[in-house]
Every structure is written in C-alpha cells, then in structure tokens.
Amino acid sequence: MAALLLAATLALYFAGQRRNPPGFYVDECSIAYNALEIARHGADEYGVAFPLYFKAFGEYKNPVYIYLLAAVFEATGPSNLAARRLSASLGWLACVAIGWLAWRTSRSRGIAAAAFLLAAFTPMIFEISRLAFEVALYPLATALFLLAVWHASRRERWTARDAAAIVAALLLLTYTYSIGRLFAPLLLAALIAFFHTRARRPQLAAITIAFLFLGVAPIVAYDRLHGGALTARFHSLTYLDASQPIASLAGFERHYVDNALPLSMALAGDPNARHHVPHSGGSILLVTFALAAIGAFLALRSRDRWWCFVLAGAALSLVPASLTFDRWHTLRMAPYPLFLIALSIPAMEWLRRQRRALTAAIAVAGAVQAIWFMTVFFRDGGKRVAEFDHGGRRAVETAVAQGSRPIAVDDSLHMEAWWYGAQRGVERSAFAVGAAPKPGGVAISANGAPKNAAILFDAEGYTVYVARP
Questions:
Q1: Cα–Cα dist 53/225, whole Å
Q2: Looking at residue 57, what is its pLDDT?
Q3: Rounded to an integer, what distance in angstroms lies between the CA atom of residue 35 and that of residue 346?
C-alpha cells in the first residue's frame, strides 16, 4: 500500500511537465545553462572554475541546485524536461521526508501517510517543484534539517554524528537559496535557545563553530571580494532603511503580520502567476493552518522542547520573506509549509485519539481544496505563456534552422539563445549578442523587426527575421 501511494504521488509530480509550465523562464535558462557548462567544462558562463556562487543578471545564483543539475545533465544531456524532473523529484522527496518525520515522531502509519499527503498536495510545495529554480531543493533541505534536529533531540547527550548531521543540514539551508543566509543563523540561535543543557554544551559549541567557519565566513569573504555581490539584490528588494529605524520596524511588523495571517495564503496565495496558478485557491491548504494551530497549542501546553522548537521555526521561517516588498512570496516562504506540517503531527495524534468526526471533516475539507487546486493547476497552468517565456524555444529553433551564422541576438535574450542553442548542438559563439545582424543575416529580437525585413517568426514577444541585404 505504501509503495502504491509513493508511486502514485511521484507520477502526479511528474505529470504534464512537458507543457506545464509551458516554457522555460529566463532565470531557468540561466540556471540550466550554467549547470551544463559545469557538466561540460567545470566552469560557469564567465569561465570561473567551480564557483561558490553563479553570477547572472546582476545577481548571484546559489550553488547547490546548479551542481545537482550539472550531475543530471552529465547523465542525460541538456533539456528542459531533465531540469524539471530534478525539481519534481526533490519536491516529492521533501514530502517523503516529512512523512518519515511523522512516522518517527508518532509511530503511526496513518499519521505518516496523512503528513505525507498533506505535504504532497500543498500547493506551495507542488508548485515549487515545477520550477527549475534553486529553491526547488529548499523544502527537502528544510525537512532534512527537521529530521536531524529531531533525532538529536531524543537524546540528552548529543553525539558527534548528531552534531555533524545538524551542521550539514544548516549548510544545505544556507547555500541552497538566498533566504538561508539569514534563516540558517536564526535556526541555529533557536537550536541553542531550546536545546542548551550542560550535557549538550560541547556539541552545540562545535555546531556553532563549524557553521561559522563553513557557512558564515565563506559568504562574508565572497561578498567582500565581489563588492557586495550577495547583498545587492536584497537592497533592491527591501523597504529597510537604516536612516529610518522606526519606519523600518513598522514596515517589518506589517509585512510579517500579512504573511502570518492564514486566510490570504489559504484562500488566494502568491499573486505572482509564475509561482502560483491564479484562481486555484491558496498556496497552503486551510486545513494545514487549522492543524498547525492545534499543534502549536499542544506544543505550548506540553512544553516539549522539540515541538516548541518546531513552533519557533515556523515563526522564524517568515522573517526573510517579511523583509522584502513582496507579500505571500512562494519562493521566500518555502520553508514555512514544512514547519506547519511538522507542527500538525501532534494535532493528528490528538485528533486520532479523541475526535473521529472532526478528523473526518478536516480530511474532507483538505481533500476538496487539494482537488480544486490540482484541477485548476492542470487545466490552466499551461496557459501561463508570458510568465514562462513560452516563445523562446520556437524563436531560437527557427533562427538556428536557417543555417546562417552568426545569429544576432538582443542582449535580453542571450541566455535563452545559449540554452536552446546548446540543446540543438549549437555553441554560444554562433550568437552575436547585442550586435546588429549582417545583411542577409538572421536576428532574434525582443523589439520587433525593422522595415522590409523578412519575418520568420513573430509571437509572444519574440521576433526572428532576416535582415535586408
């Protein structure tokens, strides 16, 4: 039965990936192309050998997912589908890890299955798994961290293996996605606050020193050596202003409360159609909030350090997202549903023992919302052509098929040209980025074609034409 459940959900996560999302967003092209360059040459698009971070579009991409994707491309060759399959697999594994956590904490197969299904049908987790972004690994990284801490929390005296597992999970959180540079230190602080005892003091000190040495120091050094490269993107996204501390604090309060209040996330979700299919309901199931609220009450009543830590982690997971202008941002709130689902486990145990009718009602309500989300996602998700640069592949393939070289490409389209060209066996040297086409030459433009040009393709913001002789 368990094998059937796992196989069915994995099939669901792989379903329709050739057309939903309908294209490959330019950031996905950048991530995939750099992964391909690592697989082929051991260097990024700028020729930097095995970089710690990947420079792209004025920001720096995080490394872990890109190196994983490089390993995939080493085996499969470059394709959109291979990248999407990796993301789907990582999302599904995150759900498996949460189910395993539920089994270890409750020793109930029913609760493990319920937690697994709750995660698998959480819109935010599912939709992140459809994107070839670095954040696709973050739900799994969060679940692995929770497992590492839970295993350690059951012992009064932590072992070197416990400490190593926690350090590894913290580093994975730090280097997988940009929010980790703040979120991981916050979790470390919570770890010390909730689990510090005299017996654990040496291990907590070792965890802290290892994290500072392997997680904080390399990032600080890299940022300074590259002129603030890792913080520049944040400065363009945040409302924080050091000269106005009171206004900044008030802004954080407003954003945090907006992100924390459940109805917006449960009924509407992220307004960015790239992250969440419009009109499909919320990004997190309403029943998850209800179960997590019960779990929070039980955690506070029991004063169990582990469950109180999970509650604190849920609160801390909203901090990075609340420091930017966007509200209900799926990618920056990626760890949030994992903590909520973990917090739901004691609620499921309580409901199983005492409230069968309420359990059935919650299960039905969750199933209805999950079915509605999946119905709309598979019906409408493939229509998001503008959000995923759907015309890019056809434009590049049309230009490449003409045989003329070099192909002139607008600056804004060079990454799509390189990525789709690579899939057709065309080297990036075949594209003249930012150059005007030679007479009779082929060009790919985001701004239409000049007069008297012979237009070969013109759709969805892409134009391919032959320049006038």
A1: 12
A2: 81
A3: 41
